[in-house]
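Hello, quick one for you while I still have it in my head. A protein chain has come my way and I'm curious about its shape. I'm sending you its amino acid sequence along with the backbone structure tokens. I'd be grateful if you could look everything over and explain what you see. Here's the protein in full, and shout if anything looks odd to you:
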Amino acid sequence: MNFPEYGGPGDGDGCGVVDHHPDGTAVRCAEAGAWHIAWEHEGPDEIRTSFVCDGHMETVRAAHPYLDRHPVGTDCTHPGARWVDSRIGAWCRAPAR
């Protein structure tokens, strides 16, 4: 699968996509994540995910395949949160306390 270069988890829900500039420098985006993307399945119960800002979401939509996406919500960064798919859309659910 063709993924954008990702600099790893940022500050909580930060974007983290790496931009390459004509002068050869590479800079990780520091914008707040606006979208939570499910890239691919990693085993039967795991999904590879990341956050991207609004600007990088346009790049992703134009050039990279992904399973699903949803706006970043309060449960997305919760430890142990799970991706939930339904007929009304996708979201993250934190584990029951």
